[in-house]
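User: Fold both of these, please.

Assistant: Here is the first one.
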Amino acid sequence: MAHTFHIPVMGLGFTMDSPIKVAKYGIDSVVSIADDLLIEQMREAYFKNLKLPFEAITRKMEDFQANRITAYLNFVNDLTNESFEKLKKSLLEKGSELQKYIDLLPDVSNVKQNSLRFKKTMLM
């Protein structure tokens, strides 16, 4: 039986970027969206870290709270999708961490069997 994971809400800052860290591995998590200022600061920090152009959503803008939350959730969605695509591509790379893990699994493992099927479809 496959393991399932659940990351509970632990506080404002602790779960705000959990999906960015774990979603690519198929682990569900939640995002705390209670503090729009903290959300905007987190979005800014990630943009600066990733060297992306950042345009702040200020309090002077109409509906700034909803726009901050929407912008952050869209960013998280884009980043997690990109991370998952990189993870899938790494499955095809010899010597990748993911490939090393899968190679260690027994041949009867569902994960190993599914990865072999995935590789076949990607190589066609």
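And the second sequence with its predicted structure:
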Amino acid sequence: MLTIDRDVQFLTEQTLVQGVEAYQADGGIIIVMDPRDGAILAMASTPGYDPNRYEDYTAKERINPAVSSMYEPGSVFKILTMACALESGVVTPNSVYNDEGIIEVGGREIYNWDRRAYGQQTMTQLLVRSLNVGAAMLSTTLGPSRFYACLEGFGIGTPTGIDLQGEATGLLKEPGDSDWAESDLGTNSFGQGVGVTPLQMITAASAIANHGLLVRPHVIYQQIDGSDVFTAQPQYLGRPISESTARTVTDMMIDVIQYGADQALVPGYTVAGKTGTAEIPSPAGYIDEETITSLIAFLPSSDPQVIVLVRLDRPRTSRWGTQTAAPLFSQFAQRLVVLLEIPPDNVRQSIAASIGG
């Protein structure tokens, strides 16, 4: 028996096909997971293949890209950088830095996505405005040892161990590796030059939703052999951040959705999330005007019951995650909460008050 919810899977596939068409993308991926125990409720990707004509497709066409294909995640990765910086104590939520619109790391100049300078910025404003310069400031302040050790704690560069075949390892270059450069310390902070699978990225983000605990994702709920029944139990992979840090980053992610990506809002629910717009690398450098847009979000933020990753490959209506992945998530989540019977914030608060009374 699988953790896959048939109704949620159908909605996920339907939404993804509609989203790829609406935003004129080459393809996309949506994953829905319970961050509390790692159960995969739905996983869809397009284009896919017809298993009735298995031999008509190449091995590459038959893989599950949500598990087996790496990509550079872009700005969704900043939530991990921020979590690492807060956990290490190099900044506090109230820390302020002067954003000059450029920072040099290892001889490479790093700019904000809009080439603007923002002056005095708080840590929350850094995430809301998705400032590359601020993210690079955090990683360089942490230094290579603490930064990469923390990312490893989130499972970056390591298979999650999901009970599916063909999982890719991911790519996390570190000091001492022949292909690591000092400039990577800056660019990795905002998800460039690091490779993840969609499954790795949602699993890492789920640790923030799950009070700092990293849990292994799985699709097998139960195995039944005659009278023998084995029910899967949550497998915790570690605690990359404290519960306090997880709560702080969650609060920041709420502001990101409210003030930086309001097209991802879900009426009646407080959503915590982060969008990403990742340039696509090629042997000749990054491809102009082509991006992978994404959003990772969970709700309800006070007691996360579901976390969702939405990814669109090369959307043509807009190159930005705020204008593609964010509204697609909102459309999807408004139906998802009904299927999963997740009550809105005011109902949950009323129930909690009643129980407390």
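Residues 243-260 form the longest helix (18 residues).
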